[in-house]
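Try this one yourself first.
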């Protein structure tokens, strides 16, 4: 689409890292605002922010290496262009972020468990912006289609799955943001996001045209497998909570 926004003799501006920066900045701004207004903790600490950022970055890269269909994918670790450029799997970053969050909540006790839900709208909004970067870079592209609502990418008319996902993430971010403001149970906010994004990702994966992230049983992608696991665990959590309440 538009991987390079402009190119000068001394500087090249790439759309993908630019939108990653936008995604992190917007997500951080939303998170800070919600934590300061509704949180138990007065503010997000710098070390927590940096740890989450590095954890999501490294986690997304590592899962990309693990599930990549290229047999020589692990040779990428030697190149700074890989670590500083494209090549992410969202769920890898999400899993690493959860691990770091658990570290800060349960072991270091530097972040309050009640405030975890306040990070959900930020995650959804930031992820939505990041998907726009995918669209401009031409990665994470859709399968071929004859639909009138398509984009020409990689020598074919394709589903703009990046745009679909971005729009649905913005809707999910808006819904969870309103839930925070309405003082809805914070466990419900988290479950809404987990169910919402998992279902969105599971469905949209059927419209993806790239198989670089791995396909299992000739049916499900890596992200679909993870989505199924998240939906199952979320359902178990709801069942346990309801049983205890009774």
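Now uncover the answer:
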């Amino acid at each position: 689409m538009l991987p390079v926004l402009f190119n000068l003799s001394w500087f090249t501006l790439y759309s993908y890292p630019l939108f990653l920066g936008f995604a992190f900045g917007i997500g951080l701004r939303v998170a800070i605002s919600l934590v300061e207004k509704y949180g138990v903790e007065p503010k997000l600490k710098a070390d927590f922010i940096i740890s989450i950022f590095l954890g999501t970055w490294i986690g997304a890269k590592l899962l990309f290496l693990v599930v990549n269909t290229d047999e020589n994918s692990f040779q990428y670790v030697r190149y700074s262009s890989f670590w500083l450029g494209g090549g992410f799997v969202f769920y890898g970053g999400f899993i690493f972020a959860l691990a770091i969050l658990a570290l800060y909540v349960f072991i270091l006790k530097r972040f309050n468990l009640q405030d975890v839900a306040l990070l959900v709208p930020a995650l959804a909004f930031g992820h939505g912006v990041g998907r726009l970067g995918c669209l401009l870079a031409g990665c994470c592209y859709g399968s071929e289609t004859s639909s009138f609502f398509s984009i020409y990418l990689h020598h074919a008319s394709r589903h703009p799955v990046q745009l679909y996902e971005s729009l649905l993430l913005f809707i999910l971010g808006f819904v969870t943001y309103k839930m925070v403001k309405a003082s809805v149970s914070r466990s419900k906010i988290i479950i809404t996001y987990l169910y919402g994004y998992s279902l969105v990702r599971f469905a949209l994966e059927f419209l993806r045209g790239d198989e670089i992230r791995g396909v299992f049983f000739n049916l499900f992608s890596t992200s679909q497998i993870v989505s199924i696991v998240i939906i199952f665990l979320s359902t178990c959590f709801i069942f346990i909570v309801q049983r205890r309440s009774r």
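Discussion: The chain has a mean pLDDT of 90. The CA atoms of residues 76 and 153 lie 25 Å apart.
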